[in-house]
């Protein structure tokens, strides 16, 4: 049973923008923090951004000021708006949900983001 469904991602030139979406079941969305991790080839998975059920946000230092995470309670969906993209943002982005940001319990299928220089 698919719990989190991601969309968005793709290929963009440096300086461009993309938006990722992650739709969840209502039970998961209303009770959990959500966000994105990313994993680049040969690197560990890292937390990119998160948002709690109450709307508090947190960002990796590398994306602060460029990425914005938000949630639409009516659509049970979380968004990651990514602006001023850099080649180092290239990775597979995984949506997650969990009671705690560093204890993901659910994962999306992953979506590739590629930023060309």
Description:
With 117 residues, this protein is mainly β. The chain has 1 helix and 11 strands. The chain has one helix at 26-31; strands at 4-7, 10-13, 18-24, 33-39, 46-51, 57-59, 67-72, 77-82, 91-98, 106-107, 111-116. The strands form 2 sheets. Strands 2, 4, 5, 6, 9, 10 and 11 form a 7-stranded mixed sheet that branches. Strand 5 (46-51) and strand 6 (57-59) form a beta hairpin. The longest helix is centred in the N-terminal third of the chain and has 6 residues, at 26-31.
Number of helices: 1
Percent in helix: under 10%
Shape: globular
Cα-atom radius of gyration: 13 Å
Distance between the termini: 38 Å
Question: How are helices and strands ordered from N to C?
Answer: EEEHEEEEEEEE
Return the average pLDDT rounded to an integer.
Answer: 94
Strand content: over 45%
Annotation, overall tally of beta strands: 11
Instruction: Characterize the biggest β-sheet.
Output: 7 strands, mixed
Pairing-aware structural class of the strands and helices? mainly beta
Low-confidence stretches: none
Quick tags:
117 residues, mainly beta, 7-stranded mixed beta sheet, 4-stranded antiparallel beta sheet, 1 helix, 11 strands, 5% helix
Question: What's the SSE blueprint?
Answer:
Layout: E1 4-7, E2 10-13, E3 18-24, H1 26-31, E4 33-39, E5 46-51, E6 57-59, E7 67-72, E8 77-82, E9 91-98, E10 106-107, E11 111-116
Parallel strand pairs: 2-11
Antiparallel strand pairs: 1-3, 3-8, 4-5, 4-9, 5-6, 7-8, 9-10, 9-11
């Amino acid at each position: 049973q698919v719990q989190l469904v991601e969309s968005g991602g793709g290929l963009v030139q440096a300086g461009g923008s993309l938006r990722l979406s992650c739709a969840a079941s209502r039970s998961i969305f209303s009770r959990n923090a959500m966000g994105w991790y990313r994993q680049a080839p040969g690197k560990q998975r890292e937390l990119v951004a998160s948002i709690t059920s109450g709307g508090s946000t947190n960002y990796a230092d590398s994306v602060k000021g460029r990425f914005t995470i938000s949630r639409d309670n009516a659509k049970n969906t979380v968004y990651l708006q990514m602006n001023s993209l850099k080649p180092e943002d290239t990775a597979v982005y995984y949506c997650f949900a969990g009671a705690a940001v560093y204890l993901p319990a659910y994962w999306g299928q992953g979506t590739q983001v590629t930023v060309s220089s």
